[in-house]
Specification:
The protein is built from eight helices and six strands, in the order βαβααβαβααβαβα. The chain is of the alpha/beta class. Strands 2-1-3-4-5-6 form a six-stranded parallel beta sheet, sandwiched between helices. 47% of the residues are buried.
Amino acid sequence: MSPRPMLLYLHGGGFVLGTLDGVDEVCRAITARSGWEVPSLEYRLAPEHPYPAALEDSLDTFTWLRESAGDLGIDPDLIAVGGDSAGGNLAAALCLSLRDRGLALPASQVLVYPAVDDRFARPSWTQFADAPLLTAADARWLWEQYVGSERQGDVDQYAAPMKAASLRGLPPALILTAEVDPLRDDAEAYAERLRNDGVPTTSIRHSGVFHGFFTEVGVFGKTDAAIDDVVRHLRGIASARH
């Protein structure tokens, strides 16, 4: 049997909440449709374990997966990383950290409404300040738990990937956003920066849905469509490697 591709999935929950059970259905759906293995990581949560604990767990896991690929029946060159919300932040930061250390990169990064900026300044933060599931106030509170109140506005690019001086040399990206989401404009601006820095990037906005829709398998039609977006992207990554 030939080695299988893998997507390491990092759940959302504002770095404070979120469980493996919460993303089990979406991971299973991606696996069933794409043929990729999709394990998810139970990384340490804030405020008990603030930044950079969750990122360190993600980096350690990705490194272990590459080193253990032969034993796991996984293709080490086809391990992608992805996640939603806080998990999207961790996936983006993982790619930045590996690039900056000159280490092997994931085959791709799949970022679903990722939290990438700590300035909370783009229009969607005001336009959708009271959006369902995640309000702007919620997001600010969760961010404070992650980085600590004393570090507000004083974090590096591995906490807030938008702060990176350059995004060149990062893996191909798929970025999915929800129309009614305070994080929308930040995520789409990150996609634009990736493109401008020469990273092959696809950005898709799903209309009529809000933050959190991606993991609501069987609830929203747009969830099914977004999973298909991920599957198409992963298949494209695999095809390009063969």
